[in-house]
Amino acid sequence: MKPIRNSAKAIIIVDARLLTIKNQDDEGFYYILPGGGQQPGETLTSALQRECREELSVDVDVANLVCIREYIGRNHEFATADGDFHAIEFMFECSLREGGVVGAGELPDLGQVGSEWIPVDQLTACRFYPNALGLVLAEYGRGSHPVYLGDVN
Q1: Closest-CA residue to 139 (of 26, 46, 16)
Q2: Which listed site, 89, 114, 144, 149, has its alpha carbon 20 to 30 Å from 33?
Q3: Do residues 20 and 146 lie in contact, with contact meaning Cβ atoms separated by under 8 Å?
Q4: Closest-CA residue to 38 (of 4, 76, 79, 72)
């Protein structure tokens, strides 16, 4: 098994819509949070700011940690492709810096075809990963929510 990978993800909500990275695979479009892997010597917040520039061409301000997701590939639908992958994702509430315009990204990820603002109440109706986060965000701001989501996809 590969080493555990830490990553930082951005939860950017404006007007009840979540900013997502739009990807495409053999099954069609799917959506994930902006962000990615932490590099050695880099803080989670620095990793998140770098990843948002790479994927969206925007600078973000990082605020509170919202939740943590663990992903152990062999336990989920993509086990054949990433069965030896284990990641821990730290998801932070973020905001776009004033004047920031979402773009194509300086260094988009493989499979990334753009970005899309998805209404929070529609996240569970599309191919959004992690799907469990859609349920959390639907209730976010209305009270408590789980901080540790567990090993979910």
Answers
A1: 16
A2: 144
A3: no
A4: 4
30, 42 Cβ separation under 8 angstroms: no
Please give the residue range of the domain that contains residue 123.
Answer: 5-151
For residue 11, give both structure tokens.
């939860």
Domain count for the chain:
1
Least Cα distance to 61 among 80, 45, 37 occurs for 45
pLDDT tens figures, 101-152:
888 777 778 788 999 999 999 998 999 999 888 888 877 766 677 899 999 9
- Confirm if 111 and 31 have CB atoms less than 8 A apart: no
Q: What angle do CA 63, 23, 51 make, to 5 degrees?
A: 35
Ramachandran area for residue 132 (φ above 0: left; ψ -120 to 50: alpha; else beta) = alpha
Q: Which two tokens stand for residue 77?
A: 């639908």
- In this prediction, residue 124 carries a pLDDT of 87
